[in-house]
Amino acid sequence: MTRTAIRVENVGKRYGDSVVLDDVSLEIGDGEFFTLLGPSGSGKSTLLRIIAGLLDADTGEVVIGGRTMTGRPAHTRELGVVFQSLALFPHLSVGDNVGFPLRMRRVGRREIARRVSGALQLVQLPDMQDRSVSELSGGQSQRVALARALVYEPRILLLDEPLSALDRRLRESMQLELTRIHRELGVTIVNVTHDQREALIVSDRIAIMESGRIVQCGPGPDLYASPATPFVAGFLGDPLLLEGDVVAMNGTRTLHSPGVSVTVRESVPLGKGVAVMRPERLRLLSADGPRQRYDNGLHGEVLHSAFDGHGTFYQVRLDCGPTAAVHVPAGANGVRHEAGERVIVAWNADDIPIVTQG
User: Which residues form the ABC transporter domain (predicted)?
Assistant: First the structure.
């Protein structure tokens, strides 16, 4: 059984009348890549700072390595931390920036040189010790900040949105770098981000936060396939959420929504429900083409189409009212649909999760 690296127990934090964290509890396994994911203001960075010891919780406690952190200042927790701002010292060289935590711990000069060299090798920046940080690119600065956080070999690394300022290509490259470093070192990583794609790419598990609470926690594929709430369903991906009542009719379970009824899985409980119609799970058919066997088909009109390299995204205004996004992968059989064309958005009941609401 995996040991627990970090345990958060009933942590609460308020600023005046504003509740920032509301009775948050979680456990993070030793060597796990764990991400706190949520929109701005959900409390994820506040929770990370409480774990780091940079903020005090009003209630509850943080336990690291089996020891309570209550009353222990940040510098005694032996955590590596990388913030969005990176906080590199502009007047120091790359090597001096990376070696700074070791000098603060009064490590010997030879040992500092050895560890700095090793940390820069780890982040693939060898032979850059003498470079000024002002000469670094955005990606190189990120790597230097990572090297500085890892140079004293902490067992836990905390990341507070360090990649958010990078362009898309560089951000995705650094995401792969993080997974490589995690795999090589086996260090526990707690990552904060609002980027759902980043969370799904790098994480062993994800905790999704909303209004100071963790609303669902688990591996990314599980959260994506089986969201616990409409908020989770809408935050991961870009689905159409079709709300209605699940009823049994003629041996079939159907979700009734204003202006439309769709067939759902037989295992879906009766009552309030939300169909999570993700773009990649839908099919787009010509309205006047040959009929194909699908459980559901809604007529509509193409509003817009755009090719993104991986396929074509369509926006379709459904006759029942809402607009659905449909993604047709590149190389898929079928014709290109133009704006104004009549189409059918089709899917099978097993392809669409239903979030039940009691």
Answer: 6-236
Neighbours of 48 (CB within 10 A): 21
Last residue of a domain, one of 193, 210, 230: 230
pLDDT single digits (tens) 5-43: 999 999 999 999 999 999 999 999 999 999 999 999 999
**Structure tokens, 96:** 């001096």
Average pLDDT, the chain: 92
| Residue owning tokens 């309205």 | 287
- How many whole angstroms from its chain centre is CA 136? 28
Task: Please name the amino acid found at residue 156.
Answer: I
* Length of the chain measured in residues: 358
**Degrees to nearest 5, angle at CA 264 with 263 and 270:** 110
Phi and psi for 145 in degrees, rounded to 5? Answer: -60, -40
Mean pLDDT over 171-188 rounds to 90
What is the CATH number for 214? Answer: 3.40.50.300
pTM of the complete model: 0.90
Residue ranges of alpha helices (H) inside 84-208 are 94-104, 109-122, 138-150, 168-185, 196-202
Q: Which of 198, 230, 262 is the last residue of a domain?
A: 230
Q: Is 282 helix (H, G, I), strand (E, B) or coil?
A: coil
CA-to-CA dists, residue 176 to 82, 172, 182, angstroms: 17, 7, 10
Q: How far apart are the C-alpha atoms of 353 and 343, rounded to whole Å?
A: 23
